[in-house]
Design brief:
The chain is mainly α. The chain has helices at residues 6-18, 24-35, 41-53, 80-97, 101-109; strands at residues 57-61, 74-78. It has one domain (6-109): Arc Repressor Mutant, subunit A (Orthogonal Bundle), CATH 1.10.10. Helix 1 crosses helix 2 (24-35).
């Protein structure tokens, strides 16, 4: 089974947390909030495109808004395949941490 990369996991989680308001600007802001690392728009758009090609995301245009000069925002949502990939990743993380509760507890304290 192929697991998500950390970048894919962070992007999918950011979109999931944004619920229905996941468009590139809000996704970038959420990723920065979550990771405390900057994200270049070119990299973000490329990653979103790759996640769509893998079937983890779908996009749809919103209604044009006067504030944006009539341009529509592109909103992203997880597909069932994307949700399943996140579940598999959670299970993977749990399996690799299994049996090392003492170490896990020490890591959480620091």
């Amino acid at each position: 089974m192929k697991y998500l990369t950390l970048n894919e996991e962070v992007l999918l989680l950011a979109i999931l947390r944004l619920k229905g308001d996941a468009y590139p600007v809000s996704i970038r802001e959420k990723v920065i909030e979550m990771t405390e690392k900057d994200v270049v728009y070119g990299t973000l758009y490329n990653s979103l495109d790759q996640l769509q090609k893998k079937g983890y995301l779908r996009s749809e245009k919103g209604d044009p808004t006067p504030e944006r000069g009539g341009k529509s925002k592109i909103y992203f949502k997880l597909t069932e395949r994307g949700i399943s990939a996140l579940r598999n990743t959670v299970e993977f993380h749990e399996s690799i941490w299994e049996g090392i509760d003492e170490l896990s507890a020490r890591l959480k304290k620091n």
